[in-house]
Every structure is written in structure tokens, then in C-alpha cells.
């Protein structure tokens, strides 16, 4: 709930804080951030749009006007229904796709040349330097489509653009004339050319057919001369011979096996008889034959019978026939048997071994079959050679027959086409009619709204780019909302620009003119400081925030002025408050309250931390403002950071906390030295003061990060709009956080101090002036004030 505090000159509305450690979100979604940037930089965006539109208007005024004339022609296809739909000559392809061909014809170089010739004879207001290019660049041809069905009709849309309206109309009329002339001439020319081409093709095909017929006769003659068999008959014969060959091979194999059995048979008569019985069982031929020769008479009879058979076969088959040779071998075998028996005995009553006699028979059959096999294999090889030749000749014959049939069909087709062209030779097939004559050209370009819209859009893009670039390069805060959003803390006060005042009241002669709350307590500036005081009360109630640190990102942000005026405002509210100058490098409290003029600035908090004086001997009561006590810096130390980190400093704050209601510490800038970061861990809350300057945002964000890094309790931000040089500080802040003084040298932000202080440091305690109070009197007055 908001609290309202009324003062005589103004009314301040204080909103409940979110809490010292409750950061405000730094950023929302990317889209909202971009819109926020564009809205904040809307001037650049508007400027970009206006500049783009102005440039577009200027560009529009520099463009020459363009006029367009339009016309429509209907193209008729009067092709005879008897004419074949396909066309041989590729130059007649436009007849196949009727309208596509006509559209291409109108765009062709021939039509452009004809139109250019007609235009040279016409009167143009602005004659071109090159007529063919003039026609080619200005002419546009398209097919008319039905708006409902989208189907392409037989109507062509013609348009022509020129910088003069009457020239556009004239040029389009000449394009139609050139197209019409070309169409009339091409119909007759194409028909004659097609007839000649067809006639030439027909003669070529007939000549080719004669050659094929002659080759076909030659192939057939070769077939008849090669073999008495046809290709199919010879294939069957080869198949049968192969079958006979396989049977003979098997039979020869069986004979070989039988001979080996007889050769390996034992000499025992019984066993040989058993083998003969087995052979008779396996060979059906033996069942009907008797191979037992019991005496010489039987042998002689067998020889006589074989000689008769030999004589018959010799006469019928010849001496070299296998069967003749087989019979001859049997006769010789029998004669050899008789010869062998005659050596041993004169008794011709003997018997011939049937197994031996069967072997003679088998050997004869084996020899006969081997001779047959040779003859069959020889015939098969010869037939295969003939078969290969017949196969090649047969394939060639069939190929020639197919070619002959194809040529017959092509010749018939060509003859039909020649007849068709001859019939329709004098009748035109394509005709064009002008259904919408060329009109006076109308202005189609440039269009002002088109140029302005495009230029405005480009200007919008440029403006947005400029706005984004300006936002990225801008390092300042634009509004209090941005300070809250980026620093994640509340703003507890706004201090206007302070003008140093001179007061006639001698009471404030020694006080700095910027202590406005004491000199002009009812001014608007004083009310602003009281507003900070009220926000501080509201923020720290019931939280034990008694010791408050005042610091800033950079020098010149008005931290000492804020600390002094805030201390005066708190004292004016009736609270016991002490202002401690913890800026050991560039103290200001003693100058603001005129302690140096009263010779009261020699002793301070440094003297206490160095054990040179007691605490209450260094505390001084402000004579001009009741309830305000001051603890100046005193002599400048050589080791300020070590003093602030010492246990004595913590003990000092504990003692002061017991005797004062509010303790305000004035500390150096955060980005200059490490002192304020050290102090921030020992206080109850920190107030950060800053000015809205051109490059102030990075410094403020860095200061906020430093306080968050040490866990400091940031109570809020006081926006101080005082000028950067008005405080008399010599601090200088750059991109490295440099921290220099006009009357004292310091190092960079790395805390390396190269120059000694001008004020010498001594171990002797400073002598007390007559106006300073003793320790006991200070304690007594504090108790009385309490």
C-alpha cells in the first residue's frame, strides 16, 4: 500500500518497496524487448520511414512514364479432319500444340523484324534508335484463360509498352500486321516444304526396301546351299545323334566292365560257370545264344556260319564297316582255338570255354560300337558347324523380314500423307482475326503508391536498424523504469540539480552552499532529500537498519552531497544521527560542514583507528544543526583498505551503533577502489547514488554486480542529476575504472597506489583545539540528547 507524505511545498507518494534483495526482472521476451526499443527510438523509426518515402517520391519523379496498349486476336485452326494429327517436319510443331505454337510465333524474331520494318515506314512521335530491340523489349504475349475454369482458349493477349501512348498503339498494330503476313506466307511455304520432304522420304524408303528385298533373297539362297535340312530339321537330327552317342557311350562302358570281369575270373570251371550264368541273367542277349563248342566240328560249323555272315556283310557294308570287322575277329578267334588244340592232341573231341567264347563276342561288339561312336561324333560335329551357319542366316533372314514389313508400313504412311497434303495443299489451315484492336496507351508505370510503399518499407527497415544500432551503442539510462529494470532495485529518490546558495545568515557562512537542507530547508531540493529520508524510514522500519552506507559508481555522482544532506534531514526529524567520512582517499565531510575552517578536521576516524585518540574525542557535534554529529576523516592514511578491514573498524561501528539512532557512512566510489565493497559487508544497508549520464549505465550495472558479489544489502538508488564537475572532485572514470585526484595520486582499479599522499602521516595525536569537546563532555551531551 502506498504511503503519502505531505510537505509544505510538495506531496511525495512512496510505494512499498519490493525488498532490498528482490530484483526486478531484467528482460522479458525478445519480442517485447524489441518493441520497447522501437517505441523508445520511435523518432528514428519515423525518420527512416519519412526519409524512405521522400527518397521514393524523388525517385518516382525522375522516372519516365510508361504507357501500355492492348489488343486481342483469335486464331482459328482449319486443319482437315482427314489429316493425320502428327507432323513430320519439326518446323510445324506449333501446329501440334496449336496455341503454344502461335504464341511462340508472335514472339519470334521474324515477327519482330517484320514489325520493325513496318514501324520504320510509320510516323512515331519518339522514334527509337534500334527498331528491332524496341519491338522486342516492348511486346508482351500471353494466352487468354477462362476466369472460371482456367482453361486456355484460342485467344492471344497482345500488349506493348512505350514512353508515348500513341507510339504504343502504333507499334502494337504493326506487330499484328507482321504476324498476319508471316502466317499467310508460312502456310503455303510450309505445305510445299512438307510435300517435298515427304516425297523425298518416300523415295528413300522405297530404295531401301529394294536393297532389303535383294539381301533377303541372298540369305535364302545361302540357306538352301548350306544344307538339305532346314534349321529346325537339323536341330532335331543333332538331338537324335546326341542321344545315340550317349547310348553307345553307356554300352561301351558296360562292355569294358564285362571284359574286366572275365579277365579277373578264377580258373575254376565251376566258378566260371557261375559267372557265365550271372552274365546270362544280366544280359538278355545271352539267353538266346549258345557259346558252348564241345568239339572241333562245332567250331568248324561256327566258323563256316561266320564266314557266310562275313561274306554277306562285306558285300553290303564294305570292308571297313564295324560289323564286318567284328565278324572277322570272331572267325580269327575260332581258328586260333582250333590251332591251339591241334598242338596238344590229335583228338578233336574237346569243348570250348563259354566264358572265353563270350569274351570274344564282347570284344567284337566293343570294337564295333567304338567305330560307330566315332562316326556319330564326326557327324555331330559336322552338323553343329552347319547348324551355326544356318542359325546366323536364319536370324538375318528374320531381321530382314521385320525390316521389310516396317518399310512397307512406312511407305504406306508416307503415301497417305502425300495424298492428304496434295488434297489440302491450296486450303489454309491457320487464320488470325483481330477481335480487339489496339487502343491508345494508358499509363501503367511508374505508380506513386507502389514506389512510396516500397520506399516506406525500406525506410522502416532502415529506421528499425538505426534504432537498434542506437540502442546497442547507447550506454545511458533513459528512464527510472529502466534503472529499476536493469539494476533490479527500487529508486528511493530523485535529486534535482543543486545550485550552490549563499545565505545572509552568518550561522551558515562556513557551510558549503550545497548543504541545501540546512541553508534552504523549505526549498524544493530540500524536499527531495526529505523524500529520500522518508523512503529510507519506510524501507528500514522494524529491520534494524541503523548503519547506512552512501556510495556511487563513479566520482562526481554526488555521494558526499547526498550523505551530508541526508544526515541533516534525519537530524531535522529529531533523531540522533552521525555522519562518518569513510572516504580516506578524498574526504569531503570536513569541507562541506566547514570543519577545516574551524580547525576541527585534524582529528577523525583515522586517528581513532590508529589509536591516536579516543572515539568520543574525535566525534564533533555540528553547531549549526542540532542532533547531527560528525566524525571526519582526519589525517589521510597510507593504508586505507587495511584500516577498513581491521577489527578496530568493526568495533568502532559497534560502539557508535549503541549511541546513535542513525549512522551514515560516506564511502568512495565503488568502481574506483575496493574500500566501499569492504565497508558494505559491515553495514545494515547501502544507498547507491548516480547521475543519468551518457555512459553511466555500464558503471551503474557494474557497481550493482559488485555489491551483489559481496552480499551487500542494497536499499535502493538515488538518482542525482547534478553536473559531474560541480562537486569539486577530481575523480576521473574511464574504461578501466581509473580513480585519480587532483591533489592526491591513486592507481587504477587494481588498488595499486603509486603516489604518496600530500598530507604527511604522523604517529603523534593531533592537538585538540579550544572548540573541541573532551571525551566525557561528548558522552554527557549524547546521554542528555538521548
Automatic annotation (TrEMBL):
Gene3D superfamilies from the UniProt entry: P-loop containing nucleotide triphosphate hydrolases (3.40.50.300)
Q: Which InterPro entries does this chain map to?
A: AAA_dom (IPR025669), Bact_polysacc_biosynth/exp (IPR050445), LPS_length_determ_N (IPR003856), P-loop_NTPase (IPR027417), Wzc-like_C (IPR005702)
- Record domain AAA: where: 546-679
Q: Where do the segments described as Disordered lie?
A: 762-786
Enumerate the catalysed reactions.
L-tyrosyl-[protein] + ATP = O-phospho-L-tyrosyl-[protein] + ADP + H(+)
What superkingdom heads the lineage? Bacteria
Q: Which Enzyme Commission number(s) are listed?
A: 2.7.10.2
Q: What region holds the Polysaccharide chain length determinant N-terminal domain?
A: 33-84
**Transmembrane segment boundaries:** 43-60, 451-470
Compartments where found: Cell inner membrane
Which principal EC class is assigned to this enzyme?
transferase
Asked if the Swiss-Prot or TrEMBL record annotates the protein with the keyword Disulfide bond, the reply is no
- What is the protein named? non-specific protein-tyrosine kinase
Q: What is the lineage of its organism?
A: Bacteria, Pseudomonadati, Planctomycetota, Planctomycetia, Gemmatales
Amino acid at each position: 500500500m502506498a504511503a503519502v507524505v505531505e510537505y509544505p511545498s510538495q506531496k511525495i507518494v512512496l510505494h512499498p518497496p519490493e525488498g532490498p534483495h528482490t530484483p526486478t526482472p531484467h528482460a522479458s521476451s525478445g519480442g517485447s524487448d524489441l518493441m520497447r526499443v522501437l517505441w523508445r527510438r520511435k523518432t528514428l523509426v519515423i525518420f527512416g520511414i519519412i526519409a524512405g518515402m521522400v527518397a521514393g517520391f524523388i525517385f518516382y519523379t525522375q522516372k519516365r512514364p510508361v504507357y501500355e496498349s492492348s489488343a486481342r486476336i483469335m486464331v482459328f485452326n482449319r486443319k482437315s479432319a482427314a489429316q493425320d494429327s502428327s507432323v513430320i517436319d519439326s518446323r510445324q510443331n506449333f501446329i501440334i500444340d496449336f496455341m503454344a505454337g502461335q504464341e511462340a510465333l508472335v514472339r519470334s524474331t521474324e515477327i519482330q523484324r517484320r514489325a520493325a520494318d513496318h514501324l520504320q515506314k510509320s510516323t512515331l512521335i519518339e522514334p527509337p534508335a534500334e527498331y528491332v530491340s524496341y519491338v522486342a523489349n516492348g511486346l508482351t504475349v500471353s494466352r487468354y484463360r477462362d476466369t472460371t475454369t482456367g482453361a486456355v482458349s484460342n485467344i492471344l493477349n497482345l500488349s506493348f509498352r512505350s514512353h508515348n501512348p500513341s507510339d504504343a498503339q502504333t507499334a502494337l498494330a504493326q506487330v499484328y500486321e507482321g504476324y498476319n503476313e508471316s502466317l499467310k506466307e508460312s502456310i503455303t511455304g510450309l505445305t510445299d516444304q512438307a510435300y517435298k520432304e515427304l516425297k523425298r522420304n518416300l523415295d528413300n524408303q522405297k530404295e531401301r526396301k529394294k536393297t532389303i528385298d535383294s539381301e533377303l533373297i541372298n540369305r535364302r539362297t545361302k540357306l538352301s546351299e548350306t544344307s538339305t535340312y532346314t534349321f529346325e530339321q537339323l536341330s532335331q537330327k543333332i538331338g537324335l545323334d546326341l542321344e545315340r552317342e550317349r547310348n553307345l557311350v553307356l554300352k561301351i562302358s558296360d562292355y569294358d566292365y564285362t571284359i574286366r570281369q572275365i579277365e579277373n575270373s578264377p580258373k575254376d570251371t565251376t566258378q566260371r560257370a557261375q559267372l557265365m550264368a550271372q552274365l546270362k541273367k544280366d544280359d538278355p542277349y545271352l539267353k538266346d545264344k549258345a557259346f558252348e563248342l564241345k568239339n572241333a566240328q562245332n567250331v568248324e560249323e561256327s566258323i563256316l556260319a561266320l564266314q557266310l555272315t562275313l561274306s554277306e556283310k562285306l558285300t553290303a557294308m564294305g570292308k571297313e564297316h564295324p560289323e564286318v570287322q567284328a565278324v572277322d575277329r570272331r572267325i580269327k578267334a575260332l581258328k586260333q582255338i582250333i590251332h591251339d588244340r591241334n598242338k596238344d592232341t590229335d583228338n578233336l573231341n574237346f569243348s570250348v570255354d563259354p566264358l572265353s567264347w563270350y569274351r570274344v563276342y564282347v570284344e567284337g561288339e566293343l570294337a564295333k560300337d567304338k567305330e560307330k561312336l566315332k562316326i556319330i561324333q564326326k557327324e555331330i560335329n559336322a552338323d553343329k558347324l552347319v547348324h551355326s551357319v544356318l542359325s546366323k542366316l536364319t536370324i538375318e533372314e528374320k531381321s530382314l523380314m521385320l525390316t521389310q514389313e516396317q518399310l512397307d508400313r512406312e511407305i504406306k504412311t508416307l503415301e497417305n500423307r502425300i495424298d492428304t497434303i496434295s488434297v489440302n495443299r491450296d486450303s489454309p489451315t491457320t487464320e488470325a482475326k483481330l477481335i480487339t484492336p489496339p487502343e491508345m496507351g494508358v499509363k501503367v508505370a511508374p505508380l506513386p503508391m507502389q514506389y512510396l510503399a516500397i520506399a516506406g518499407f525500406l525506410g522502416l527497415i532502415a529506421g528499425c536498424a538505426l534504432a537498434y544500432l542506437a540502442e546497442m551503442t547507447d550506454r545511458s539510462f533513459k528512464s527510472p523504469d529502466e534503472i529499476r529494470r536493469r539494476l533490479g532495485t527500487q529508486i528511493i529518490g530523485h535529486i534535482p540539480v543543486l545550485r550552490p546558495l549563499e545565505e545572509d545568515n552568518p550561522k551558515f557562512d562556513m557551510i558549503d552552499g550545497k548543504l541545501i537542507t540546512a541553508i534552504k530547508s523549505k526549498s524544493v531540493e530540500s524536499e527531495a532529500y526529505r523524500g529520500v529520508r522518508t523512503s529510507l524510514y519506510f524501507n528500514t522500519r522494524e529491520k534494524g537498519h541503523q548503519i547506512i552506507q552512501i556510495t556511487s559508481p563513479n566520482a562526481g555522482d554526488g555521494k558526499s552531497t547526498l550523505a551530508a544532506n541526508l544526515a541533516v534531514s534525519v537530524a531535522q526529524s529529531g533523531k540522533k544521527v552521525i555522519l562518518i567520512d569513510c572516504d580516506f582517499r578524498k574526504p569531503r565531510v570536513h569541507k562541506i560542514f566547514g570543519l577545516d575552517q574551524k580547525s576541527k578536521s585534524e582529528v577523525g576516524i583515522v586517528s581513532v583507528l590508529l589509536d591516536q585518540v579516543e572515539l568520543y574525542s574525535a566525534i564533533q557535534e555540528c553547531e549549526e544543526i542540532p542532533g547531527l554529529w560528525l566524525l571526519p576523516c582526519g589525517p589521510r592514511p597510507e593504508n586505507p583498505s587495511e584500516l577498513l578491514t581491521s577489527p578496530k573498524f568493526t568495533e568502532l561501528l559497534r560502539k557508535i551503533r549503541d549511541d546513535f539512532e542513525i549512522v551514515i557512512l560516506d564511502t568512495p566510489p565503488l568502481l574506483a577502489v575496493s574500500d566501499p565493497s569492504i565497508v558494505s559487508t559491515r553495514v545494515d544497508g547501502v544507498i547507491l547514488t548516480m547521475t543519468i549520464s551518457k555512459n553511466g549505465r555500464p558503471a551503474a550495472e557494474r557497481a550493482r554486480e559488485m555489491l551483489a558479489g559481496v552480499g551487500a544489502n542494497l536499499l535502493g538508488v538515488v538518482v542525482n542529476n547534478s553536473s559531474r564537475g560541480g562537486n569539486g572532485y577530481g575523480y576521473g572514470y574511464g574504461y578501466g575504472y581509473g580513480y585519480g585526484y587532483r591533489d592526491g595520486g591513486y592507481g587504477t582499479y587494481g588498488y595499486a597506489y603509486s603516489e604518496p599522499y600530500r598530507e604527511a602521516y604522523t604517529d603523534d595525536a593531533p592537538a585538540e583545539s579550544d572548540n573541541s569537546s573532551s571525551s566525557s563532555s561528548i558522552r554527557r551531551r549524547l546521554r542528555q540528547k538521548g
